[in-house]
Specification:
heterodimer; A: 269 residues; alpha+beta; 8-stranded antiparallel β-sheet; 5-stranded antiparallel β-sheet; B: alpha+beta
């Protein structure tokens, strides 16, 4: 059980003041040289790396509110280690959050949000934080952590409805934030958003919205290595939040071209 | 050695196999007993299942030093908590203390932990606290470098609501399978079973474990084999 990876046995001496340079360097180039510095470190001012991660979150506005979808996978490097991780959570009465990236940081964000909502409730002034406010709070948290070179390694989707106003936004680990009619994190940006750009329209019904999200999630299942076939869809309307029970999607493999792809060119792939 | 120093983002593989499973009435924790420094086996009979309280135990993997210090701190805090609370701590509290230390020191620590125990409110509980300090409430979990060989095994063999005997047998079989294939796991299989009646430690020395593929029945000496097959000595 003693650390036996790569023969590291050096004693780490921490020095005040930070090595700005090592963070800037391209990880791939400097990996070997930097490994001893960026390895098990005592200097909490360095950028970390994620361990247990969630993959894409996809969100759309629809007629009555917002729909969010995310699978329940917690990957550990290339291993699909955990398959019951809930990455969609309600926030107060008016919002839902979906997170990708490091799960421990998401759990910490939920603790911050629970405290935010608690204090908001304690004012007992008839007002409660809507999605805009929560999104702004998250943006500030993420950006300020980024400025200290100690980010929360997540990309977040925040959606909600308050007083009839629908809101859907996203925040990245470096504080980049924006709102749109449809948003996604990670692979979802590359695979889901093109589908949504083509097929999303104002006033989707609930059924149309769910089908559209499922279309996106199916493509992600086919093409994202860290996707798992167990997902949840969350709905938020003026009435409140519902998060579906976990379920799986059917996949289609019955293309003629799939059956014997190398028939025409033996040895090809 | 074939460790890739360049891949910073790949989780470090940790020498050990640790397992925690819930069953109908409690939990069974299991582990191998090998502690290695590089290629040398520093301790072939380590105890990786550490007591936190009377009713909560911790399976340790990864850096021996890191996991020991975390368990010492958590034992200390839990002891104080028990005094203040006036009754045994819950498994959830113990797991959260482990999480706090793991999460807040994530830059420095390299240890994956499994917290398991029994309390009167929720019965038998297993919590996984992998690298990074995520906390996950799970019906069973596996950890350490040997666990990579067990994902398929558990996908097939795990079932909800086992009896104590089924659960113990499953854990012992699993650890022994991992030991067969993982160089960083070995020695004996230790299990700790925790339920409302208390805690029972069991010890399965290497020679009591089943034999797997290409493993032969251990003998005292070649001479016994020769004597058994023919009374004549070897001839050429």
């Amino acid at each position: 059980m003693s650390n036996n990876g790569g023969g590291e046995s050096s004693v780490r001496i921490t020095i005040d003041g930070f090595s700005f340079k090592s963070v800037e360097m391209n990880v791939a180039d400097s990996a070997v040289a930097m490994n001893n510095l960026l390895g098990s470190e005592g200097d909490s001012q360095r950028t970390l790396y994620p361990y247990v991660t969630g993959t894409s979150v996809v969100g759309i506005k629809y007629k009555d509110g917002i729909l969010l979808a995310a699978d329940m996978g917690g990957s550990y490097g290339s291993t699909l280690r955990y398959k019951t991780v809930e990455r969609l959570k309600p926030v107060g009465k008016h919002s839902i959050i979906g997170a990708s990236g490091e799960i421990s940081d998401f759990q910490e964000i939920m603790r911050y949000l629970d405290e935010l909502i608690l204090v908001d409730n304690m004012w007992d002034d008839g007002n409660s934080f809507g999605p805009k406010e929560v999104h702004n709070y998250l943006t500030r948290v993420m950006y300020n952590r980024r400025n200290k070179f100690n980010p929360l390694w997540n990309s977040l989707v925040l959606g909600g409805v308050k007083n009839g106003q629908k809101y859907l936004g996203t925040v990245s680990m470096i504080g980049v934030h924006y709102e749109d009619n449809h948003v996604a994190t990670g692979f979802g940006n590359h695979l889901a958003r093109p589908i949504l750009r083509d097929e999303w329209h104002e006033n989707l019904s609930f059924e149309e919205g769910v089908k559209l999200l499922e279309k996106c999630m199916r493509v992600l299942l086919y093409r994202d290595r860290s996707a798992v076939n167990k997902l949840q869809i969350a709905k938020i309307t003026e009435e409140g939040v519902t998060i579906s029970p976990p379920y799986s999607l059917k996949t289609f493999w019955n293309f003629a071209a799939f059956e014997n792809p190398t028939a025409g060119a033996v040895g090809s792939w | 050695m074939d460790f890739s120093l360049g891949d910073l983002n790949a989780p470090h593989s940790m020498g050990t196999t640790i397992i925690g499973v819930t069953y109908n009435g409690g939990v069974v924790l299991g582990a191998d007993s090998r502690t290695s420094t590089g290629m040398y086996v520093a301790n072939r009979a380590s105890d990786k299942i550490t007591q936190l309280t009377d009713n909560v135990y911790l399976c340790r993997s990864g850096s021996a030093a890191d996991s020991q210090i975390v368990s010492d701190y958590v034992r200390h805090f839990l002891h104080q908590h028990t005094i203040q609370l006036g009754q045994p701590s819950t498994v959830k509290v113990a797991a959260n203390l482990v999480r706090l230390l793991s999460y807040n020191n994530k830059n420095m620590l390299q240890t994956g932990l499994i917290v398991g125990g029994w309390d009167k409110y929720e019965g038998g509980k297993i919590f996984g606290v992998p690298l990074g300090g995520t906390i996950l409430d799970l019906p069973f979990t596996i950890g350490g470098s040997g666990s990579t060989y067990l994902y398929g095994f558990f996908d097939q063999e795990w079932k909800e609501g086992m009896t104590q005997d089924e659960a113990e047998k499953l854990v012992v079989k699993a650890v022994s399978l991992a030991i067969a294939r993982d160089g960083a796991s070995g020695g004996v299989v230790r299990t700790v079973t925790i339920n409302e009646d208390g805690v029972v430690r069991k010890f399965y020395p290497g020679d009591t474990l089943p034999l797997w593929h290409e493993e032969l029945e251990p003998k005292d000496s070649l001479l016994d084999i020769l004597a058994a097959s023919s009374p004549e000595p070897m001839v050429s």
